[in-house]
Amino acid sequence: MASSPELSSSSNGGRTQTTQTTTTSSQRNNPHYPTRTELVALALYPTLLLFGTLFSLLNPSARSSPYDFVSQSHVQSGDAIPSYFARKDNLFNVFFVKRAWFWITVSFFGFLFSHPGYNSNYTGTRGDNGSGYGRKVKAVVRWGLVTLWWVFVTQWFFGPAIVDRGFRVTGGKCQEAQGRVNAQVKADAMPGPVGSNVEVAGLKEFVTAAACKAAGGKWQGGHDISGHVFLLVLGSAFLVQEVGWVVARHYWRRSVRDERTVVMGDGAVKSAGTDLAADKRWDDYSPEMDEAREVRDVVTGGGLWDALGHGGKVVFVVVGLSAWMLLMTAIYFHTWFEKLTGLLVALMGLYFTYIVPRFVPALRGIVGLPGV
């Protein structure tokens, strides 16, 4: 589609200036959707899940290994287990995936407080004296939103977590523990000491997978959203968003353009860079001046590895391990539908944190955008 000129007027000291700008509607991204670059990055996740699922069906050792649909894993005893990564007690699962949010948080804050993109005098929201303090606060708010979504889905949601609630709604329950508790309740109804706490404890056993397993029961019968897929997708995509846009804006500004668009307070759709300019402390802003005021206190030479900085390199390792363990989860754990729902639930949290603020100015004023 050909570009079309647009006329805009501005008033400066009583004088009206008319300027002509050229926009290409076919190149402007809809603020309600991820950009093309983001879609390419996000496509990695369903690709890994699809490849892992196909591999588990075609690989002879994985296909022939006994599978336990209650634990959603291959049988953990004997020599039939198809791979070291099919074991739930493998070191990567125990020390990385089980503590994944710790590693995600540490790497994020390491990048936030060490990378020049957050410490330069290039940009700054009003009131932060150009130190990047305001941008750091908004980055922490975004981390808080993503962390809250992780807590709601896997840990607690005004009671049982969303994963446990979903399992119960779809017909799941604590099978073996239920029989034992019912028997105990009947025994307590007989003459003798009253064990009133047994029924309360039994009810608790039924509402979460952790309590059920701790009581010796089996959590089965419902749809079990893959917590591993959810966690690894949410955490790694969060890090990619936070690091990717900062590195792109500050190191390859002249060759990599910000594809993101935002809805302004008056309803106009403009580039994310325009929203940045609106927060500057000068009135004669122009894109040319913006490029002229590039970050001067960072080394723009070198490749991606140098551009990441020390904090970004740690993030790179965490994202790489997340991708690898996501592939192992796709091969050896959960059904394809449970992995799919884990992916979709993770994308819901990412959409609210990184896409919704682009078309809701009030929310954007609180959480900001990475690299802006």
Structure, briefly:
Helix content is 56%, strand content 9%.
Describe this structure in words.
This protein is 56% helix and 9% strand. With 372 residues, the chain is mostly helical. Strands 1-2 form a two-stranded antiparallel ribbon. A two-stranded antiparallel ribbon has the order 3-4. A two-stranded antiparallel sheet has the order 5-6.
Instruction: Compute the number of helices.
Output: 16
Strand order of the largest sheet: 1-2
- The parts where pLDDT drops under 50 for at least 5 residues are 1-26, 121-131, 178-205, 277-301
Please state the overall shape, judged from the principal axes of the Cα atoms: globular
What Rg do the Cα atoms give? Answer: 26 Å
Task: For the structure shown, list the relevant keywords.
endoplasmic reticulum; 8 strands; two-stranded antiparallel sheet; disordered N terminus; FIT; mainly alpha; 16 helices; 372 residues; phospholipid biosynthesis; hydrolase
Secondary-structure blueprint:
Blueprint: E1 4-12, E2 15-23, H1 36-42, H2 44-58, H3 60-64, E3 67-68, E4 73-74, H4 91-97, H5 100-114, H6 133-154, H7 162-169, E5 173-174, H8 175-189, H9 197-207, H10 209-214, E6 219-220, H11 227-251, E7 261-263, E8 269-271, H12 272-277, H13 287-292, H14 304-332, H15 336-359, H16 361-367
Helix pairs in contact: 2-14, 2-15, 5-6, 5-11, 5-14, 6-11, 6-15, 8-9, 11-14, 11-15, 15-16
